[in-house]
Model the fold of this input.
Amino acid sequence: MLETVAQAVINGLLIGGIYALVSIGVTLIFGVVKIVNFAQGEFVMIGMYISFFLANQFGIDPLLSLFVSMPVLFAAGVLIQHFLIRRVLGPNDMPQIFLTFALSLLLLNLALMLFTANYRTVHTSYSDEAFHIAGLYIPVAKLIAFVVAMLLSGLLWLFLHTTDLGKAMRAASQNRDVAMLMGINPNRVFCVALGIALALAGAAGSLLMPFYSAYPFVGQVFVLMAFVAVVLGTLGNVVGALVASLMMGIAESLGVQYVGADSGLIVVFAMLLLTLAFKPTGLGGGRAR
Amino acid sequence: MMQDVNPRNAMLVAIGIAILIALPMVVKSSFAIDIFVRILLFAFIGTAWNLMGGYAKQLSLGHAAYFGLGAYTSTILEINYDISPWIGMVAGGVVAMLASLPIGWLCFRLRGPYFTIATIATAQALMLIFLKFRDFAWGAEGTTIPNLGTAPLMMQFESKSSYYYVALGLLLLSLLVTWLIERSWIGYYLVAIGEDEDAAEAIGVNAPKMKRDIYMISAFLTALAGTFYTQYIYFIDPATAFSFNISIEAALVSIVGGIGTLWGPLIGTVLLETTSTLLQSWLGSSIGGVQLTVYSLILMAVILWRPTGLMGMINEARQRFAGRKPARA
Done:
């Protein structure tokens, strides 16, 4: 009994690390640029396809392709901010929402046209390996993904708190006007924020590849999780998003274990609706940091 | 209220309606009528969305929730209780109105993009509920509507042109509702909320109540479309009734046509549906994703270069045209 619970919690925690990479990206963009990137999930999908093709064509391990997917998506983020998002930043919500939404539709359907709806998998030497500790089953690929995800989140935290550019980003997220008066170039900060957020999504994609199938709609699973985690963890709050993502992973896994195999999403929606009903400012108490 | 109607515009509208009524009598191809029905239907859904999304700028991407509730209410009433879909249609509208109260209560706690996400989530949650409860709603397999041949009282017709007139009636209803709202104090209040909700509240607009009421009207109309569509295709399942594509298209046609304008959703639907039909006849429907790829490119182009949509372009052209004739000023 206790073991099944512990196993479900571990499963949830491990996948929660991936949710965290996606949510941190969403909340970083929201905090700094003040827009919601509806296309974040599609960048996870692109990261997965990058890793899939590198593994398929050149036999490169998906974990090594992290060093390709992250820079490629960082560059994509900078370009998207500079050429698209910069043009719609203003007081009006409509263009901001529907620009990234259109981008999401475009990437998803381009993938459908180019790669078809088939599921693609990469089999690595460690895909079927697992540790057995105290009766618990811990798959190696998921453990690696979790550890790398936490490592990247830690690096981001260090970047935001110790470097000048990171501090500038936090300043811009706290008060954009004052930050600009202090001489911070907003477009440069926004470009870096988009770049980092997309690189994290790309990392999530590469880390998923050894144990998850790539298909055009795969991003929607993760972006939905991320949106809920970002509300739950207070909009714009990086640490909140991380904690909330891990909680969501565990809640989903317990839902699958105790309510039924197809009820993971129901648990997620229930969490979103309960958060909205009782604590719409999120667990962080409404402070973005 | 009627005295300040511009007689020239009234003429144009009357001519337009006459052409639309005559259209199925001239065009006999059932392929063409099918496209017209789709245009009328999505223009209707778009117009319903536009009431809330366009005027009050509450950008919902969850209108499939009401489309699905309307479709399921009338179908359950028809199959299980032999109640005519005409009655079921109104019942579906009422169910959707009632459902919009708790959904709105939750979603309106968030503003801007997070309101949008909350509406997506509620529509998806409803789809999951209908997938789960197989005993009262047939689960994932869905069900077909028994074909009774020509049974106008059960909203079933042999000829496609009859469906065309039903869809036309729905569209005209939504345009009338929009027109009445647009020119009354309600329209001004909604636009004020859309421009700046805090400022609107500061000058005495009861924003929560206005948003709730317009959401109810929008939900009611969208539900009517759900009933009509189910009767038209003789089939219902959660994936079609609560399809995210319906939520997308409702918003898309309004934005492309001109958000917050009376004619925008209709013009946007004509453009998008025509494009999609041409694409399908050129490329065939074998390659998945072509239609939405093109839609998303059109949407991006509109947002980046013409945020006022096609109506904005038309108005600009009219002003330029009028500007050349100073005598009329």
In short: Chain B touches chain A at residues 57, 59, 61, 106-107, 109-110, 112-114, 116-118, 121-122, 124-125, 128, 131-132, 248, 251, 255, 259, 287-290, 292-293, 295-297, 299-300, 303-304, 307 (CB under 8 Å). Chain B has one domain: 2-328. Residues 2-328 of chain B form a domain with the ABC transporter involved in vitamin B12 uptake, BtuC fold (CATH 1.10.3470). The beta strands of chain B are 143-144, 235-236.
